[in-house]
Amino acid sequence: MKMLGVLGGMGPLASAEFMRQLTLLTPADRDQDHIPTVLWSDPRVPDRTAARVHGGEDPLPALVRGIRGLEAAGCEAIVIPCNTAHGWYEGMREATRLPILHIVDAAAAELRRLGVNEGPIGLMGTSGTLAMRLYQERLGFECLTPDAEIQEGFVMPAVGLVKANRIEETYAPLALVARGLHAQGASAVVLGCTEIPLGIAAGPELEFPVVDTIAALARAAIDWAKA
Amino acid sequence: MKMLGVLGGMGPLASAEFMRQLTLLTPADRDQDHIPTVLWSDPRVPDRTAARVHGGEDPLPALVRGIRGLEAAGCEAIVIPCNTAHGWYEGMREATRLPILHIVDAAAAELRRLGVNEGPIGLMGTSGTLAMRLYQERLGFECLTPDAEIQEGFVMPAVGLVKANRIEETYAPLALVARGLHAQGASAVVLGCTEIPLGIAAGPELEFPVVDTIAALARAAIDWAKA
Question: In angstroms, rounded to a whole number, what is the distance separating the alpha carbons of residues B223 and B112?
């Protein structure tokens, strides 16, 4: 069976949840049926939103160091359970011969799997992901995003709280923003930052289709491993 | 900050849970406060109990391959979130200059943290772990273990069901065995197989001190990283 490489640690809880979803979504009767995986969990990668929005340190060198580690370990494909890091997708792609499964393509496949064929789609993500238009230019659906005040006042603080292990506090603001996008006409909401599904999982299920980009990426990885 | 190596995949869900506990138990305000970690999750390692009890394939070569991968990645210490694999502890220790934090020592520290100073201690584990006397000869407490019929009829099937992602089904038999050990006089019960805390977490909390060896090993790793 092929070895999967996970470039993670952005954040580390999302990477752990990716490993959990990868395991639970794999059809298996015993350990040996699961997918061999190396997780490179390096939380020291410079903050992606700070780099793009506030002129912070470039994360690409740290991302490429992780890719080198996964190559050396014998991995044959790479997934990155961090949406914002995909803003450096071209730079990473040019740095390796391994395929990198794109998280936005995984989200698009998940929308199809959920039977969502018409937009607009609500999009929640970091300010970096929204500013780089990662979803708007690749998902294949019109995207509705929160107003700037909502983004900075509710979404970004919640993302930070998940990274600080304060998960329970984030359900209320994140669910409020998701419901707001649904009320504005979104047929589904993509949780396009891997911290967001962790917060949304801490409370009651939402009443409309939601794409968990951690689980979506895990399904893409399983499809790759089984192909 | 030092890089931690996790020799995992035995089983993969226990490794994912180790990464989750490692993250949640680390004091952190942001990604960059968390511990850089490489998880080598290789579920192809030959079954440890089969090797020890039924003359199955020796897992040591696969374990040492994983250690070589973690060394190459730059890790400075190794933890193994699989109790039974510690039956090959000496062989692994001889194969590397890196320290390997022993899971039984982590369980002993957790008993102290919980205020348990007197035995006997109930011990649940795989038939391999019990037969190799990993806990009986290292924990520092008298250990009570289930009868052979209970071990083969309840504990081992539950461990197998966790590896097959059928977690919910395992709470009832595992909790029954733990409560039986407590009724026989155990002051605490060590869940000395990393599949067992996953099953026990699927239902109501037990009424007596319980050592989750996944969380115990995560605490030992955090102590190492912060030292």
Answer: 15
Alpha carbons within 13 angstroms on the beta-carbon side of residue A51 total 17
CB A208 within 8 A of CB A182: yes
Cβ-Cβ contacts under 8 Å between A and B: the total is: 141
Structural domains for chain A: 4-102+215-226 (3.40.50.1860), 104-213 (3.40.50.1860)
Each residue's pLDDT tens digit, B87-128: 999 999 999 999 999 999 999 999 999 999 999 999 999 999
Nearest to B43 among A36, A38, A43 (CB): A36
State residue A70's pLDDT score. 98
- DSSP one-letter string for B76-124: SEEE-S-SGGGGGHHHHHHH-SS-B--HHHHHHHHHHHTT--S--EEEE
Question: So what's the ipTM on this one?
Answer: 0.96
- Look up B193 and say whether it is catalytic: yes
pLDDT digits (tens, 9 = 90+) for A70-128: 999 999 999 999 999 999 999 999 999 999 999 999 999 999 999 999 999 999 999 99
pTM score, whole prediction: 0.97
**Res B194 pLDDT > 90:** yes
CA distance B126 to chain A (A): 14
